[in-house]
Design goal:
This protein is α+β, with helices and mostly antiparallel strands and 97 residues long. It contains 2 helices and 4 strands, in the order αββββα. The chain has a two-stranded antiparallel ribbon with strand order 1-2. Strand 1 and strand 2 form a beta hairpin. It is rod-shaped, with a radius of gyration of 33 Å. The termini are far apart. The C terminus is likely disordered.
């Protein structure tokens, strides 16, 4: 009878130890999934060349090596660059004459 009680106690201790290890493992796995889920989905943040607002790279537009938050800002920036280049070309022509 004593041997049966000892076996029962050993079985109970092993069962609760296994249960505790399983709970620790499950908690670790949930924490890991939570960390993976909390990571930014859009990736790296980039700054709009026109308005200087930061947007996720996945949502941004890229043209001529610059990042933009919208096509309107891209068009305005490129138009301004074109005007600056046209004005600079005209000044250089005046200096040469």
């Amino acid at each position: 009878m004593n041997l049966l009680i000892i076996r029962l106690i050993i079985f109970a201790v092993l069962f609760f130890a296994g249960l505790k290890l399983y709970r620790i493992y499950r908690e670790w796995k949930l924490d890991r999934e939570r960390l993976d889920h909390d990571a930014p989905e859009g990736g790296q943040m980039v700054r709009c060349a026109w308005c200087r607002v930061h947007v996720p790279e996945a949502e941004a537009l890229r043209d001529k090596g610059e990042w933009f938050c919208s096509s309107a800002h891209r068009d305005r920036y490129l138009q301004e660059q074109q005007q600056d280049n046209d004005g600079a070309d005209g000044e250089e022509d005046d200096r040469r004459d």
